[in-house]
Amino acid sequence: MCCVLRSLAQISAFIPPEVNRYPSASVHNTTRRQKNALKIVASTGAKTRSQEDDYHATLEALNSKGRTPRKSLGQHYMLNSAVNEQLAAAADVKEGDVVLEIGPGTGSLTNVLVDSGATVLAIEKDPYMAALVRERFANTGRVEVLQEDFTECHIQSRMFSYLEADSVDAKFQYAKVVSNIPFNISTEVVKQLLPMGDIFSEVVLLLQEEAALRLVDSSLRTSTYRPINIFINFYSDPDYKFKVPRTSFFPQPKVDAAVVAFKLKQAVNYPPVSSTKGFFSMARPEELTLENFVSLYNLVVKL
């Protein structure tokens, strides 16, 4: 018992360490071929079907707003429609679902979600991309775009307001999150969304592959097993779905990505602790599973 108590000597407030300010958040300079493609699209006014959302369609969409991917926003645009289809399938998106999408970019994933029958609330920080997505889906009646920084918005109140709107099917039970998020806000997104099992049933995110593996399959007694792992398993059941090669993005990042699905728990299914705030203020858990950590916490609070 003394050894156990000594392991708690360095108690600090739970602030999940950043999984990484991922290298992939740094956008490569546009290649000469990419620059030329932008010029060709601009000069010819070439049209591509919006349903394709391929390389040329993405360039055309960006060019329509005079934009190139911004490093400060960690923008990497998905060029592979099959990946978007898999993302939607991982959340089992179907007719009547309500989906939160963070960082829709040019709307390629939004398009798949709408085609699946979902109503989408999209949150986009870049005002130009927000305008593009708003215009693209203006006639569908299925997409609302909020031009905000997700890490600073009050997502819970936003969702409650959205779900109470007349345009949302009153028969649904829980909303879902399906997003290709900027890698540099992964930890913030996970921290905000996972405790919201009263609103969301599934959170499906495209993350940097290294981070995805670390969040889902961390081993005990290693430096990668951190308070964020206890946090994730407290609020959800995470599942690594599939790898996404870096060649699927424009611009191409330095690393591959992966999709993780977090099945959110309801409050009645959380581990039994007297105070979540007190629980997450305990010391680093390198050698304890979630179950052991819960038992230890409950033992300590009784002393």
Overview in brief:
This protein has twelve helices and nine strands.
Task: Give a structural overview.
Keywords: Methyltransferase, RNA-binding, rRNA processing, S-adenosyl-L-methionine, Transferase. This is rRNA adenine N(6)-methyltransferase. It is built from twelve helices and nine strands. By secondary structure, the chain is of the alpha/beta class. A seven-stranded mixed beta sheet has the order 4-3-2-5-6-9-7, with helices on both faces. Helix 2 packs across helix 3 and helix 4 crosses helix 5 (108-115). The longest helix is centred in the N-terminal third of the chain and has 13 residues, at 32-44. The chain is globular, with a radius of gyration of 21 Å.
For this entry, what is the oligomeric state of its chains? single chain
Q: What structural class should be given to the helix and strand makeup? A: alpha/beta
Helix amount, in percent? 25-40%
Largest sheet: 7 strands, mixed
Element string (H = helix, E = strand)? HHHEHEHEHEHEHEHHEEEHH
The share of residues in extended strands comes to 15-25%
Organism: Escallonia herrerae
Family: Belongs to the class I-like SAM-binding methyltransferase superfamily. rRNA adenine N(6)-methyltransferase family.
Enzyme class: transferase
Protein name: rRNA adenine N(6)-methyltransferase
Keywords, separated by commas or semicolons:
RNA-binding; two-stranded antiparallel sheet; disordered N terminus; 303 residues; alpha/beta; single chain
Describe the secondary structure blueprint for this structure:
Blueprint: H1 2-6, H2 32-44, H3 55-64, E1 77-78, H4 81-90, E2 98-102, H5 108-115, E3 119-124, H6 127-136, E4 143-147, H7 155-163, E5 175-180, H8 186-193, E6 200-208, H9 209-216, H10 227-235, E7 236-244, E8 249-250, E9 257-264, H11 276-279, H12 290-302
Parallel strand pairs: 2-3, 2-5, 3-4, 5-6
Antiparallel strand pairs: 1-8, 6-9, 7-9
Helix pairs in contact: 2-3, 4-5
